[in-house]
Amino acid sequence: MTTQPHRRKFLLGSLTGAGALSVGAASAIEPIRRQGRPLMRLGLAAYSFRQALDLRRKPPTMNLDGFIDLTASMPFDAVELTEYYFPETSPRYLAQLKGRCTRLGLDISGTAIRSDFCVTNAARLKEQIDHTRRWIEITSRLGGKTIRIFGGTVAKDDKEDRARRQCIDAMQQCCEFAGQVGVFLALENHGGITGTSEQMLALVRAVKSDWFGVNLDTGNFRTKDPYADLECLAPYAVVVQMKTEISREGRKPEEADLKRLFQMLRTVNYRGYVVLEYEAAEDTKIAIPRYARQMREMCG
Asked: What is the CATH number of the domain that holds 72?
């Protein structure tokens, strides 16, 4: 009987360059058992500068080169590059971005894309899968470790059970391709079919691949106890997007307890990237450097 590559072993080596993992062949994703001490590398998401990078502006006030340069001026180890802000994806342009990061001592932790695997039209579903596969290849060219995806939203005339089965199958197909180029597919808790920890786990536990895990977004649960929901998913995280606010059900956004979030990651012995994705109202030029210093201390 053949077995799939050991995702856990690869993940630890590729994200941290140290340690080893002990798991059996993948029949479904299991919590990651990481040996050694927790080890976190701090990244900054391009989405934090979404207004400046918006390509609909003619011209935008910042490009990806400028974002990379700015990130290098702060205590970050990596950048996360969002698909929305790429003016092109030619091999030459991708190489230029990768080289710029290398010269500045920054990793490209991965990319983040928009996807919807709940669409009811077969042609549109194929477009979503093809789009994800294309960006998996782009991520590999950039040297990224993970690609953030969305599950999607159940259509008004559809049933969640059917949409979930389709989503699982689509992600399975994408994982098969991702494994060929060494990129992890990371499903984000992002409303719709992934709006609760129960919905997330129903998807995550059903995908049979060593190249799949959770993009743990700390600000996306709008439940009575977001921290409890995040704790349920933390053992499955292959990358973390750290927000500075959380939103409890029926309440206004509040300042996130970053110390609690970092301790949550330490409890599951997380080893990988923690990416600041800033969405709060304070000016990014003031807020991001401050949070960068705080998070650097918490990373240890």
From this structure: 3.20.20.150
What are 139-158's pLDDT values in tens digits?
Answer: 999 999 999 999 999 999 99
Separation in Å, CA 220 to CA 95, 192, 223, 240, 245: 33, 11, 9, 12, 9
How buried is residue 105: exposed, middle or buried, by Cβ count under 10 Å (0-12/13-18/19+)? exposed
Query: DSSP assignment of 180-191, as one string?
Result: HHT-EEEEE--B
Name the helix (H) or strand (E) containing 214: strand 212-217
Q: Which three-class secondary structure state does DSSP give residue 158?
A: coil
Distance of alpha carbon 231 from alpha carbon 242, whole angstroms: 14
How much of the chain is in helix, strand and coil states, percent to nearest 5?
Answer: 45, 20, 40
pLDDT tens, residue by residue, 89-130: 999 999 999 999 999 999 999 999 999 999 999 999 999 999
Structural domain range at position 63 = 7-19+31-299
Q: Which of 118, 115, 119 is nearest to 147 (CA)?
A: 115
Residue entry with tokens 């140290």: 18
Residue 182 lies in a domain: yes
Kindly tell me the burial class for residue 45, based on how many C-beta atoms sit within 10 Å of its own C-beta (0-12, 13-18, 19 or more).
buried
pTM: 0.89
Contact between 246 and 65 under an 8 Å Cβ cutoff? The reply is: no
How far, in whole angstroms, is CA 263 from its chain's centroid?
A: 19
Taking 50 as the threshold, does the pLDDT of residue 179 lie above it?
yes
271, pLDDT greater than 90? yes
